Fold this protein.
Amino acid sequence: MSEIDTLKNNLQKPIVLMGMMGTGKSHIGSTLAKSLGLPFYDSDRVIEEKAGCPVSEIFEIFGEEKFRASEHKTILELLNNAPCIIATGGGAPANPDTLSAIKQQSISVWLNADINSVIARLSGNTTRPLLQGDNPEQTLKDLLQKREPFYAQADIEINSADDSVHKTLAKLIKALSEHVEYVGN
Ligand code: S3P
């Protein structure tokens, strides 16, 4: 049986992608969803739909705390879905309650990339409110250091830095199919 078929036949809960901004969670997640014929949700997009404005404006108008509360609630709602793929915002797993729900109700994946690739990918980015300060590189380094212990609790870790989307996806599908076959859901 192909890895995709093993995964399709055995998957019983959502797959959650977590990791720093700039690691390709949304792109890899939507491509994985297409390969498996499953729905794809991006928690940031769902939060934006609820608020009627982009994440940057939610931070500006309501503040980060309100954004984090909405992020927690949104991810809990998305976790109630049948098998699907969920990309989460980079800060979501730093809330222990959100992380605990992700661990209990999904197969979790840490899309990891070395910090220099992340910095290069996000250079000049204007849509991430946390990177609009004087030293976005240092901010990214500090955030990664704080968040690594949370990301490291994922069931599966995949490095997304050096490979094409195609290769990263192949590694991810292999790891997921082994997980559902040998570890269970
Ligand atoms: C954030 C990451 C963003 C978004 C918000 C905050 C973070 O999502 O949720 O700007 O705290 O790392 P992506 O990881 O999809 O960029």
Observations:
- Residues 21, 25, 44, 55, 89-91, 128-130 surround shikimate-3-phosphate (CB under 6 Å).
- The first helix runs from residue 3 to 10.
- The radius of gyration is 16 Å.
- The chain has a mean pLDDT of 95.
